[in-house]
């Protein structure tokens, strides 16, 4: 060995660094940079990889948001029936039970008895409903005819914007006067002032004495303003042909317990309908709140089922990520070898692939959220439900997609980290 | 190793007279039982700091296995391996990786650059693992590219570079961390003779002017002629070591 031909020994000669841990924060920062580069280089593949997550997240969030909106709409619609309102109908449960004779309708005397004998009742309004075509000049319009009493306006807290309600005398006489909703005005009278005009309702000539304030959509998707209100006697005499009453609406005084009033009415009607102690009620007293709760319950059940299905698609999306990551690890074996030879420790390679999976799935989650927002904005008007942005479900879906990345990215990343640098470098 | 922090001075004194690399009785066996293959049968080798060593020998003679062990990519089955006076044959996987990161640079026959990745990003890669900030990474990587004469090509991907240029980028990547040792595995194997000479001149220059110890595996005597020391392998043993070579280097 000829010392002169060789450079002088480096005076800063130091022993190898004591083997030390890799700085965690540094590691994450480094790997995020690498992951971002990798995704940028394979845009198409990255998009296809996260398609499952995108679809999963967007369908979950869309379903839940629309479901919440629908439930909310249902609640609003039911409560639009009126606060502290009880509806009394013959039959058992919703509609009529199968078999057996039809339970009788109510009599006008039942209505009077409720108003007279039950405490805490603000208004009792019988209702006799029919429908028919209204004609005015060349215009005609098919609408709902609701026969009731003056108390209906109080019970519903719904009064004319123009004109007046029928007088006690008109009600008693069953005169052909009517208070009409704004939809009827718009379709029948257009721009003419309807007050004082007469129009034909089926075969009855009817005078408009009032126009109700606009209420908009209500009930169960029906148009509340598409209605003609008349004295009940007029409807019974001219359209239904009997004195029977299908429906009684009871408004309870503010601050009075509706449940107490409800059971008092049940007791009274059992007595009036001569039901024995062992007989079931052949009528129902619904609290609108109960209906609201039932409807909300049905909506949340449907929402959770649909969401469950959507969540499965999210899971499938996660498996899609694992597939592509495994392929990617195999395809990039040589790259992994290079990184290991250059001095990457196993953990760094693991982190790189894991971070790549997580960044991908988070990206999928974000795109999914945006897509869900667009989908909700487009679909909600068709379903006629309000858009209720729910930060909780958005955050949850996003975190879930990130978790998919961690769970399904781990195995491929672990495989990558286990590679032997020599074999990896030889890999073709 | 644990005493390195406090006993640093003493270690320096102790290692001052030692070779950079010392192999003693290195053996390597692949497989188990009847299928076992003894790739190395007891290799003794000292490599001095600043040397330019060519490793030659027919396939299966153990030269690649030795290079893998010297590059801390593989561990010997037996024997001692001292690097800067420290035992490295006992280091675990992560410790070897950290040692490669700090002290070693690799150049391969097949270049092994990351595809779809610019020359600059390729050269930056080892710095990324050393945790250098972005600005310094870029600075050092541009410096290394300048050293191999490819400063103008920094934003080209391997697909846009010739074989010779790709190997230059690989060399830039290997020297960007200022390693003690550059390990080159048939660096000219995929290049024509003109490009090969250019690469060898580059390695000779790095060896002479930057003081990087170069260990190179080659089949070609023409390339080995650039080395100062030539180690000949045969059947898992060192057959012969020629010192004080370098017919062409001075030119």
TrEMBL record, chain A:
Main location: membrane
Membrane topology: Multi-pass membrane protein
Pfam families on file: FtsX (PF02687), MacB_PCD (PF12704)
Keyword presence, Membrane: yes
InterPro entries per UniProt: ABC3_permease_C, MacB_PCD, Macrolide_Exporter_MacB
GO cellular component labels: plasma membrane
Annotated ranges, domain MacB-like periplasmic core: 46-267
Record's keyword terms, sorted: Cell membrane, Membrane, Transmembrane, Transmembrane helix
Transmembrane segment boundaries: 47-67, 298-329, 350-383, 395-414
GO molecular function: transmembrane transporter activity
Limits of the ABC3 transporter permease C-terminal domain: 309-421
Annotated localization: Cell membrane
PANTHER family: ABC TRANSPORTER PERMEASE YTRF, MEMBRANE COMPONENT OF TRANSPORTER-RELATED
Family designation: Belongs to the ABC-4 integral membrane protein family.
Name of this protein: Putative ABC transport system permease protein
Organism: Sphingomonas jatrophae
From TrEMBL, chain B:
Keyword field: ATP-binding, Cell inner membrane, Cell membrane, Membrane, Nucleotide-binding, Transport
Pfam family, one: ABC_tran
Gene3D superfamilies: P-loop containing nucleotide triphosphate hydrolases
Chain ranges of the ABC transporter domain: 21-251
Family, similarity comment: Belongs to the ABC transporter superfamily. Macrolide exporter (TC 3.A.1.122) family.
PANTHER family: CELL DIVISION ATP-BINDING PROTEIN FTSE (PTHR42798:SF6), LIPOPROTEIN-RELEASING SYSTEM ATP-BINDING PROTEIN LOLD (PTHR42798)
Protein name in UniProt: Putative ABC transport system ATP-binding protein
Protein's organism: Sphingomonas jatrophae
């Amino acid at each position: 060995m000829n010392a002169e031909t060789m450079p002088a020994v480096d005076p800063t000669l130091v022993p190898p660094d004591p083997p030390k841990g890799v700085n965690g924060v540094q590691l994450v920062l480094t790997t995020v940079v690498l992951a971002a580069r990798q995704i940028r280089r394979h845009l198409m593949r990255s998009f296809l990889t996260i398609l499952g997550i995108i679809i999963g997240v967007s369908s979950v969030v869309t379903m839940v948001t629309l479901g919440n909106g629908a439930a909310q709409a249902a609640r609003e619609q039911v409560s639009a029936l009126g606060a502290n309102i009880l509806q009394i109908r013959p039959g058992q449960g919703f509609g009529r039970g199968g078999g057996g004779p039809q339970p009788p309708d109510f009599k006008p005397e039942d209505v009077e008895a409720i108003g007279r004998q039950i405490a805490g009742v603000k208004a009792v309004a019988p209702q006799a409903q029919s429908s028919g075509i209204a004609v005015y000049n060349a215009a005609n319009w098919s609408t709902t005819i609701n026969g009731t009493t003056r108390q209906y306006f109080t019970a519903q807290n719904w009064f004319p914007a123009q004109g007046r309600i029928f007088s006690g005398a008109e009600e008693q006489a069953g005169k052909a006067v009517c208070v009409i909703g704004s939809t009827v005005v718009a379709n029948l009278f257009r721009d003419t002032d309807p007050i004082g005009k007469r129009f034909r309702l089926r075969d009855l000539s009817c005078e408009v004495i009032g126009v109700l304030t606009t209420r908009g959509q209500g009930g169960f998707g029906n148009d509340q303003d598409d209605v003609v209100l008349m004295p009940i006697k007029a409807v019974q005499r001219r359209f239904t042909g009997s004195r029977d009453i299908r429906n009684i609406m009871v408004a309870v005084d503010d601050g009075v317990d509706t449940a107490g009033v409800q059971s008092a009415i049940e007791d009274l009607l059992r007595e009036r309908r001569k039901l024995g102690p062992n007989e079931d009620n052949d009528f129902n007293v619904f609290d609108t709140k109960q209906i609201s709760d039932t409807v909300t319950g049905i909506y949340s059940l449907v929402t959770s089922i649909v969401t469950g299905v959507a969540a499965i698609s999210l899971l499938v999306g996660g498996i899609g990520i694992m597939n592509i990551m495994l392929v990617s690890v195999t395809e990039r074996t040589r790259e992994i070898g290079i990184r290991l030879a250059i001095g990457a420790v196993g953990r760094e390679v693991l982190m790189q692939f894991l971070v790549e999976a997580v960044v991908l799935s988070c990206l999928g989650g974000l795109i999914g959220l945006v897509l869900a927002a667009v989908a909700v904005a487009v679909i909600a008007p068709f379903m006629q439900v309000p858009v209720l942005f729910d930060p909780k479900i958005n955050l949850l879906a996003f975190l879930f997609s990130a978790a998919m990345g961690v769970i399904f990215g781990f195995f491929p990343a672990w495989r990558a980290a286990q590679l032997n640098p020599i074999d990896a470098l030889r890999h073709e | 190793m644990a005493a390195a922090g406090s006993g640093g001075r003493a270690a320096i004194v102790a290692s001052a007279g030692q070779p950079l690399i010392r192999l003693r009785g290195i053996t390597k066996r692949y497989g188990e039982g009847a299928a076992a293959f003894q790739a190395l049968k007891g290799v003794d080798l000292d490599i001095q700091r600043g040397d330019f060593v060519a490793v030659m020998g027919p396939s299966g003679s153990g030269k690649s296995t030795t290079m893998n062990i010297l590059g801390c990519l593989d561990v010997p089955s037996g024997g001692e391996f001292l690097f800067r006076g420290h035992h490295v044959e006992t280091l675990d996987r992560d410790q070897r990786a950290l040692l490669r990161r700090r002290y070693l640079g690799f150049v391969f026959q097949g270049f092994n650059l990351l595809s779809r990745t610019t020359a600059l990003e390729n050269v930056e890669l080892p710095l990324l693992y050393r945790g250098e900030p972005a600005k310094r990474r870029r600075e050092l990587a541009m410096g290394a590219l300048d050293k191999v004469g490819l400063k103008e090509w920094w934003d080209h991907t391997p697909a846009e570079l010739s074989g010779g240029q790709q190997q230059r980028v690989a060399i830039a990547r290997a020297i960007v961390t200022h390693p003690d040792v550059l390990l080159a595995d048939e660096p000219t194997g995929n290049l024509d003779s003109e490009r090969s000479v250019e690469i060898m001149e580059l390695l000779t220059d790095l060896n002479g002017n930057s003081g990087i110890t170069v260990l190179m595996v080659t089949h070609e005597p023409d390339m080995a002629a650039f080395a100062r020391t030539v180690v000949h392998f045969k059947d898992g043993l060192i057959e012969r070591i020629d010192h004080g070579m370098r017919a062409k280097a001075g030119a």
